[in-house]
Amino acid sequence: MATLKLPSTVPSPSEDCEQLRKAFAGWGTNEDLIIQILAHRNGAQRKKIQNTYSETYGEDLLKDLDSELSSDFQRVVLLWTLESAERDAYLVNEATKKLTASNWVIMEVACTRSSEQLLCVRKAYHAKYKKSMEEDIAHHTSGDFRKLLVPLVSAFRYEGNEVNMSLAKSEAKTFHQKICDKAYNDDEVIRILATRSKSQLNATFNHYNDQFGNAITKDLKADPEDEYLKFVRSIIKCLTVPEKYYEKVLRLAINKLGTDERALTRVVVTRAEVDLQRIAEEYQRRNSVPLDRAVAGDTSGDYEKMLLALMGHGDA
Amino acid sequence: MATLKLPSTVPSPSEDCEQLRKAFAGWGTNEDLIIQILAHRNGAQRKKIQNTYSETYGEDLLKDLDSELSSDFQRVVLLWTLESAERDAYLVNEATKKLTASNWVIMEVACTRSSEQLLCVRKAYHAKYKKSMEEDIAHHTSGDFRKLLVPLVSAFRYEGNEVNMSLAKSEAKTFHQKICDKAYNDDEVIRILATRSKSQLNATFNHYNDQFGNAITKDLKADPEDEYLKFVRSIIKCLTVPEKYYEKVLRLAINKLGTDERALTRVVVTRAEVDLQRIAEEYQRRNSVPLDRAVAGDTSGDYEKMLLALMGHGDA
Fold this sequence. Notes:
Two copies of one chain form a homodimer. Chain A is an all-alpha fold. Chain A has helices at 13-24, 31-38, 43-57, 61-68, 71-81, 84-95, 103-112, 115-129, 133-140, 143-154, 165-180, 187-195, 198-212, 216-219, 227-240, 242-255, 261-271, 276-287, 291-298, 301-310. Chain A folds into four domains: 13-69, Annexin (Annexin V, domain 1, Orthogonal Bundle), CATH 1.10.220.10; 84-154, Annexin (Annexin V, domain 1), CATH 1.10.220.10; 165-240, Orthogonal Bundle (Annexin V, domain 1), CATH 1.10.220; 242-310, Annexin (Annexin V, domain 1, Orthogonal Bundle). In chain A, helix 5 (71-81) runs parallel beside helix 17, helix 6 (84-95) crosses helix 8 and helix 19 runs antiparallel to helix 20 (301-310). The two termini of chain A are 17 Å apart. The A-B interface holds A 119, 122-123, 126, 130-135, 138-139, 146-147, 150-151, 154-160, 162, 187, 191, 194-197 and B 119, 122-123, 126, 130-135, 138-139, 146-147, 150-151, 154-160, 162, 187, 191, 194-197.
């Protein structure tokens, strides 16, 4: 469930653009007005605002936001304003760059989006970077992480609910065998994770649990500090219980000595229109603190206001 | 250039359906009438005929064709009648089955279709088989072939003409190094083949030729009988000069002791709406015999008539 709140009557894109122009005008910037508008429009509406803005003023809304705003607030507004496929393409591209490299961000996009959405991200990547997403990822990652990431981002998983139980059994056995042999990066493990439908994988992991007495993620904790094993566990969580994966990302981001604003921003902007409500429930359940209170306690100013607005605070 | 010939005025789908019904009626089947209609309709028109047929008669045209026709003629008509993405999905599915297994067919579909077409094939595969194409391929292939095939079918290559020359140089060097080391199945080799755009690969292979004095396909002939090396050479041909690849498939199919009808049928039906004209030119150039004459010399009856009609013979 999304947390995004829309006003009961949404102003026309040209009205919104006019207001945004006002927010940018003169000395200083009216941040509250920017939040009031953009944090309460859905993807299609934000896209229309962008188009109308460039038609009306001959300028790029994203560039104007970029020059008017700064630091964490700037990043959250810019990322939010982007349409979701373009945003994911941007995040993945950033994650292939040296200074902002992150296998985790790439994995997140690959494993938590629907097949059709992931395809849209790949198309947006072509349009924006004149390259394919998988070629950049393949080029800029290496070793076992690459062996996982390239098929994960290239997958077009079947999304029906049909489950082949005998396949689930045989592949649960394969997982168990490979885990016993500590062959965590075996081609078969990667094949199954990267190609099977989420329903099928779920059945496989359930069978694993029933048959071998432990959740597969538990058996994948042989060495809790091993980065690759952590990664495989996260893949499994993203594919089957994404809200739990995101709860943990938020928990670590907030509990850090010094908040991890990049992670916090990423989760809020990418999930506000999807399942941030469920993630917040999971957070409350796990931490005994409401997510919005935790976020408010760890952030401040316009950045805080924008995050809370996206989390459904206040009137739209 | 396509070889498909359309009539100057195309009958309506219901007229075509009526004629097809007539061709099926009574004892025997009017094969000439079937050819006259179906071999002269493009993909969209054939799709409409299928839909109209099922709306009008409550029956499946493909099933009726299947029961009316037999052997090679049946296969060519059925495959041709399918819309191209559905046909490719069918061919790939067949190629993952034990008795009709073929890494070559899978590779052909992966490497000669446009990115958008390959995507349509993957969608058609979901719809028809309730699974993803890559999961079946990953499940039913193995070893080095699998290492190549899964990323090839999963690729969504960028299709612009932009070329990064320094990248072409460095990746030509990578190829050369790996070939010198006989590391033909190296991850880097596979990464480059499976992810780069066709324009980029073309630049890389041109640079290879200029820099190292041989075409890369020549240097990949260390052991001419090695199946894996043959496969890699074919991938390179499919990605850069598909008409040469197809010319060779036809040449081998026709020159065999006993024609290889499956290969002949596959090339004709999949390329008649695409580039069969260019393939025929290439054939004539390489064999000093026109392709249609070679095909006519090697086939007979309705099968021959259908192939020649698809190759542009006679009036539409």
